[in-house]
Amino acid sequence: MATNTSAFFAGIGTTFAVLTIGFGGGLMMAKSALNEPSGYQTRAASETPNPVRVVLPTSAEAAQPPQPPLTSMTPEPVAPQEAPKQVQAIPEKSDTRKPEAEERDRTRRYAERKAKRKAEALAQQRREQRQLRGQEGARIMAFGGDSSPGFSGGFFGN
Questions:
Q1: Phi and psi angles of residue 91, each rounded to the nearest 5 degrees, phi first
Q2: How far is C-alpha 9 from the geometric centre of its chain's CA atoms?
Q3: d(CA 49, CA 46)
Q4: 158 contact partners, CB below 8 Å, separation of at least 6
């Protein structure tokens, strides 16, 4: 009996020593990591990247080819451009048949989609009704066990 007790307390002492050494070592490493900044961290904090402005074209515009960077900072003289000539718009007869045809096509497609949705909903409803009728016809049969008040044989008394 004395051997079992001493082995028990030796196990508890060993476990406590291992946990203490583990937590102490982790705490020591955490403190050293927080107090001494490494060269990588100080270098990253001191260097700030140059700001870059990125202008993306809108989806309607074509992408422009990359232009070479300017080598000198002095602006070059720009030649004056001629003002665009005013062009008088000639009124044309607008073709009303095309928008009307597009409107008819759009309403026809809408009506087809609506009819298709109604047909799918009706088919789904019919499937559900068939399933319910099939469930009503199914019967459940259960078997009763021994009705003795004693042990019924199961772990939980089933």
A1: -65, 130
A2: 53
A3: 10
A4: 152
Q: Which two tokens stand for residue 73?
A: 């900072």
In the 3-class helix/strand/coil scheme, how is the chain assigned residue by residue? CHHHHHHHHHHHHHHHHHHHHHHHHHHHHHHHHHHCCCHHHHHHHHCCCCCCCCCCCCCCCCCCCCCCCCCCCCCCCCCCCCCCCCCCCCCCCCCCHHHHHHHHHHHHHHHHHHHHHHHHHHHHHHHHHHHHHHHHHCCCCCCCCCCCCCCCCCCCCC
Q: Tell me how far CA of residue 101 lies from CA of 6, 64, 92, 112, 115, in angstroms.
A: 98, 38, 20, 16, 21
- Can you list the residues of the chain whose pLDDT is less than 70? 1-2, 36-47, 61-63, 70-96, 135-158
Residue 134's pLDDT is 74
Q: Which residues contact 153 (CB under 8 A, 6 or more apart)?
A: 145, 146
Which residue shows structure tokens 């009704």? 129
Q: What type of residue is 107?
A: T
pTM: 0.27
